[in-house]
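In this supplementary section we document a worked example of the pipeline. Step one takes a protein sequence of length 506 as its only input; no multiple sequence alignment statistics are reported here. Step two produces a three-dimensional model, which step three serialises into structure tokens for compact storage. The input and output of this example are shown verbatim.
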Amino acid sequence: MNLSNLLSRNARKYPLHQAIVSETEKINYHELNELVNRFASSLKERGLTSGDKVVLFMPNTKEFIISYFAVLRLGGIIVPVNAKLTKNEVEYILHHSDAKALLVHEWLFDTVKEINTESLITVKTGSDNGEWRSFEYMVNEGSDEEIHCPLSEDDDATILYTSGTTGQPKGVLFTYRSILSVAVMMCVEFNMKPESRILHMMPLSHSAPLHLFLAAGTYVGCTHVVTPVFTPESLLKMVDKEKITHFFGAPVAYLFTAKIPNIDSYNLTSMEHWVYGGAPLSSKEITFIKEKLVTDKLSCVYGLTEAGPSGTLLLPKEHDEKSGSIGRRGALGTEIKIVDEKGAEVKAGEVGEILLYGEGNMKEYYKDPEKTQESFIDGWLRTGDMARRDDEGYFWVVDRKKDMIISGGVNIYPKEIEEALLAHPDISEVAVVGVPHQEWGETVKAYVVSSLDNSSLIDECKSFLEGNLASFKIPKLYEGIDVLPRNATGKILKQVLREEGSEVTS
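The serialised model returned by step three reads:
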């Protein structure tokens, strides 16, 4: 089985069932499958063949979904990239992935129009532009004759590039088996069925929206509601208008949405699963979101791109007592354990690195066998996340291994400090990093986004933390900042903050 054949099957089973819905258009499964055949046949005419890599540079639109399945239908390997990337970032991925084609939405064309694409098949939505052929023209000129994809579960399907917070992004190669494994997991864990309506607002270039929601929803014949840009208002509007049942968002998406003044005017009762991931939410934040959305259906999913993503989940009923935890078991088809530096499992309460095992795990880092080997221990994927397990079996992420601060030989986990500071009513965002110290190796510095005056920031933060954290964990340095630096996926660029911090001598 492969994803292309899943779409063909849905076209036969549910021809008139809505497949894609946008604010202006509705496409059923028969129509979607026909559009995929047409675009695939035109790409084939221009030389695209099985095994070719295709970079897909589009926001969440019908053209993204059509292009995604058309490339897979020809046996190609799809390489979706974030719509917020710069010219240099797209150029790097084109070169590193050995791309044969570049498919671009007209809204993003200015980003790539200066790239040398002489050796590539180039397609853009909207009108033709030099060597760039119109997406619409290619669909219209293509044949709707059914194209069968002969690939199996063990064949290569997708390369997703990591966000590159500490260096150049790595290409994560997945087989169909990996994607189908996490898709089935999602269908079972979150009760997806043909009647489900999934809202896609987070970028489909990311593993969770793409594999856990687009692939999973297609597996069972869901309706995919797409919007190219997230805003809190549009989230509420689309849930109300389209009777959405499933939504995935980053924690910040929920926090922004919960602050909308007229949230009570929207009907959100259709929602069966509000799913968040990328970071846990604190008990205070969960209480706030649940109150504003009037829901008890919040679920947390934990994983990482290299795992499919798959990992663990914190169910709605567990949030009241275990908010901030990532759950107590691996999701369907996935195992989890915490190990020390030697690979031995640690006891409850001890901190170690999370390892994940399951068919959702990546095949490899593309063209990087050394990094691939470093990422696995006897088939278990190293996550780089440090965590502990409590006496009831719940896992708590302490921090990223690479973010851990070692001051005077003592391990300090920034996430613990950040969560403590975020409990302050006047602080909205925090990033804690280690900066060089002549005597201690590193010392702790907090970058704080708040309404506090800079003159009172240090004293206010220190007094707030006293009694909540051990003295060695309380930052010695503080800096008020208007906004934290983030990459295109919204992750905080702590490396940028670390580089800004000068060496401390006393």
